Amino acid sequence: MYPVSAVFSRGLGSRASTIVSTLGGRSLGQVTAESGTLSWASDGRKVTGKLDLSVPDPHGTLAAPDGPLGWIGQQLVVRSGVSRSSYGELIPCGSYRIDDSGSVEQAWSMHHNSMLTVTGNLFSDIWSDTWPGALTRTLTGTLKAVRRGGRLSPSAVDLLSILEEDEFIGLEQPLPGATIRSEVLRLVGGRMPVASSWPGVPDPAVPASVTYDTNRLTSLCSLAAAVNSVVWAGRSGELQFLPQPAVGATPVWTADATRAVKIIISGSRTGLYNRFIVEGTDADGAALRGVADVTVGPLTVGPPFGTVTYRHNDPLAKSQTAIDAAAQTYRDRIVADRTARVRVTVPADPSLDPLDVVAVTDPEGRVWTGPAVSCTMPLEPGVMVIEIPVPLSEVLS
Question: For residue 83, is pLDDT > 90?
Answer without folding.
Answer: no
